[in-house]
Amino acid sequence: MASEAASSGPGEPAPSLQAAVRPALLLSCALFLLCLWARGRPRRPRRSPPGPFAWPLLGNVLQLGRLPHLTFCELARRYGDVFQLRLGRRAVVVLNGEAAIRQALVRQGGHFAGRPDFPSFRLVSGGRSVAFGPYSAQWRAQRRLAHLCLRAFSTADGRSRRTFEQHVVAEARELTRVLARRGEGGAYFDPCPLFTVANANVICALCFGQRYGHEDSEFRALLGRNDRFGQTVGAGSLVDVLPWLQAFPNPVRRVFRDFQALNRELHDFVKAKVAQHRRTYDPRLTRDISDAVLGRIEQAEGLSREHVDGTLTDIFGAGQDTTSTALCWVLLLLLKHPHLQRRLRAELDSVVGRARLPTAEDRRCLPYLEAFIYETLRFSSFVPVTIPHATTADVVLRGFCIPKDTVVFVNQWSVNHDRSKWKDPHLFDPARFLDAEHKLDRDLACGVMIFSLGQRRCIGDQLAKLQLFLFTAILLHQCTFEANPAERLTMDCVHGLALKPMPFTVSVKMRDLELLASLFASLESQLPAIFSF
Ligand code: HEM
């Protein structure tokens, strides 16, 4: 044994120090040389995400199809949850499934919070958009301000919640009146344009202290251009990835020119309102979100007067169309499932009764209605892919190297229709959100991904959920909706940033017109016009 050999016996020569350390020296030299070799060796390029073959010039554009989120789900089955496409010359990484999306947008949030440098994005809100602006300290300050002011007039506390609720109830009253008028004599009509005006009016009241009549053709025309906005900035849009299409007349160039015009128009509408507010601004009285932003803009780091218009155009633009699209899906699914409509009405009648209207306070006691709304958001997944993101640095995700400024698509649809997360995701079943005691399973409800995650998560999520609940509850409490037997109700939709149901018509019967008139008359006297911030 080494220890015995080393301890020399009497009469034997002692081993030299040199001999003792030689093996250790040799080992150290070998390790040193190995390190040098490893450092000097040319590095293997790190792996890019896998993906389908991309054709020159077009890349994978022709593969996207009419509903890109479904194509992405199919490609994810072949290449995994993180894969790469090429749209024109741009590399696009597509994220699918909750785990990959959460890992990118939450755990590596800052690295995935950019927006692509698309020409169309620079046209939104006069180039000072929160939603389409690049990730920077200035953007963070603007987003914080927008979020703060929006919450102060909607869901920040009991007081703002009550005032917000009164705005929604006032709009629901007007909407119910218009629905009653349009439905007279059992007529069938398209309800969605009315939902758009009603929801836009709520945001208009919060932002500018003003609402418009359902018959106002200018306001309706302004809102009617929403679809073309979504078609330009949605995941399937070609406007930004094939810039050479701007060189000659074609449908894509027409869409882009429309987009320029409609952004100018919306921005001018908001600019005029803000200018009016500037003229009458009184720091002692904050009438609405415009006043709140005007009063705080100078204190926000890196922001100037010019950011007021951009911030308000964003809030108004993002808030007016999304919630009404959700309400159209709610109605379509009520028509498709008349037995669920009856069940919801029975729940409302037993909890709220017929002597008053449903309120936000009732929300906790109406689990089936809440479950129905969450199931509508999950099933329709009507914002299937978020606004495109971009990486803000070179980043590694799941072992794949993604360079800075890569476009990233976040496929929310894949989360809401994931078979490992939801039983029979293709079936519409609100009961999946109820626990054994028939209460709303809040953890499961939070698993629906429609407002995105992380630093770019929607800032209107709480407001939108409350507004959707109140509109749905009041409409169901007051009206009965029937499908047009001459039409086939389809889940097919018009695709843009948001999926919109194909136009459908409905007949509406009022359950109790006199009751409605007296309830709304008493509410009218309670609505405060001014709210102090
Ligand atoms: C049901 C209704 C709504 C849905 C489903 C929805 C969904 C979304 C989604 C998916 C995004 C993109 C997030 C991302 O890119 O990762 C977004 C962003 C945004 N939303 Fe909403 N939204 C709704 C209502 C609203 C409302 C009512 C407002 C304001 C009044 C609003 C304001 C915004 C803003 C300002 C952004 C940009 C956030 C950022 O880029 O940092 N949204 N929303």
UniProtKB/TrEMBL annotation:
Name of this protein: Uncharacterized protein
Species name: Pelusios castaneus
Cofactor(s) required, per the database record: heme
Alphabetized UniProt keyword annotations: Heme, Iron, Metal-binding, Monooxygenase, Oxidoreductase
GO biological process, one term: progesterone metabolic process
PANTHER family given in the database record: CYTOCHROME P450 FAMILY 1 SUBFAMILY B MEMBER 1 (PTHR24289:SF15), STEROID 17-ALPHA-HYDROXYLASE/17,20 LYASE (PTHR24289)
Record-stated family: Belongs to the cytochrome P450 family.
Source species taxonomy: Eukaryota, Metazoa, Chordata, Craniata, Vertebrata
SUPFAM superfamilies: Cytochrome P450
UniProt cross-references to InterPro entries, sorted A to Z: Cyt_P450, Cyt_P450_CS, Cyt_P450_E_grp-I, Cyt_P450_sf
Binding site for heme: C458
GO molecular function: heme binding; iron ion binding; steroid 17-alpha-monooxygenase activity
Keyword Ribosomal protein tagged: no
